[in-house]
Amino acid sequence: MTGQKRDPMAFSSKKDPPVTPQKKLRTRVDIKVLKGAEELLPEAFYESLCASGIWVEDMGRYSVVKCYPENVKTFLKMIKALHVPAEDILVTDEPERDYAELSKKYFRPIRVEGLTILTPWNKTRRDGPRILIEPGMAFGTGRHESTRLMIKLMSGMNMEGKSVLDLGCGSAILSLYAALLEAGHVLAVDVDEDAVASARKNIALNRAAVDITCCDLQQVTGGYDIVLANIDIATFRGMSAHIIDLLNKGGYLLVSGVLRRNKEELLSLFAPLSCLNAELKNSWCGFVFQKDAHGATTRRNLHTSSTDSYPGS
């Protein structure tokens, strides 16, 4: 037989098997703590995870805080520096996952001041008011101390028939609670489009009478009986005067999102208002201010008792 020269470009008629794309990996840090300790973690821990997310899994006597830090080495050093009370820490690489499904798996109902925050797939036998949410990877579930402080302050106020403005509404939990407290009109505002999209879902889930808009907080106009502001000190620095202008005479301002170290600065920013109450939870502060009905700027004595009542309650 005479050998034939084979074209190297036609070496085989068989097709190469399709290449299966490798799933992108993401690093997860699991921190095992005694049950309840996950609610007492310092603010720096939460702040480091703002852009990436956090889950809490119930493991009987323990809770496992599942974190997705942007920089794992830096995060582990921070855990050590903050003396986080970890029973165990495990670092794992996992493929990118459906985080909406993860939220269904790991989210547990949260109880704050008699209010239960849960998802449509959670089951609970607890009585009392409820708020349904669809949690995502970021905050806005009611677990953070500043949200809990706001709910505590709101629970002591008479909101029936009042106009309420929720500045920086996030997932709209505070707006929904105001609606449960029978506020006459609730407006939720946030500059972040993703937050507003999340808030719209939660408002629809609860069939609540809450209006919502996406805009810069400085663009908000009108007068309100109660303003809710769970935002950071940097934002308060730039718009405290505008927030005061949004209050009707005799109206109330409820504030949180502020660390203890910024307490005095916040009080000075809202010096034209009377400070009626202050609440502390770990490193976070919450306040109730009132705009004097006669335009006076004299500050009343500050109360710190968690059982204080407010005029009109």
Structure characterization notes:
The chain has 313 residues and is α/β, with parallel strands linked by helices. It folds into 2 domains: 25-97, ACT domain (Alpha-Beta Plaits, 2-Layer Sandwich), CATH 3.30.70; 142-290, Vaccinia Virus protein VP39 (Rossmann fold), CATH 3.40.50.150. It has 8 helices and 14 strands. The strands form 3 sheets. The chain has a 7-stranded mixed sheet. The protein has a 4-stranded antiparallel sheet with strand order 2-3-1-4. Helix 7 links the parallel strand 11 (224-230) and strand 12 (247-259). It starts with 24 loop residues before the first strand and ends in a 23-residue tail after the last strand.
Q: What average pLDDT do the residues reach?
A: 82
**In angstroms, what separates the terminal alpha carbons?**
106 Å
For the largest sheet, list the strands in their spatial order: 10-9-8-11-12-14-13
- pLDDT < 50 stretches: 1-14, 296-313
Q: Judging from the principal axes of the Cα atoms, what is the shape?
A: globular
User: Helix share of residues?
Assistant: 10-25%
* Main pleated-sheet profile: 7 strands, mixed
Number of strands: 14
Order of helices and strands: EHEEHEHEEEHEHEHEEHEHEE
Strand content: 25-35%
Structural class: alpha/beta
CATH homologous superfamily classification of the largest domain: Vaccinia Virus protein VP39
Radius of gyration: 25 Å
Any idea what the CATH architecture of the largest domain is? 3-Layer(aba) Sandwich
CATH-derived topology of the largest domain: Rossmann fold
> What is the helix tally?
8
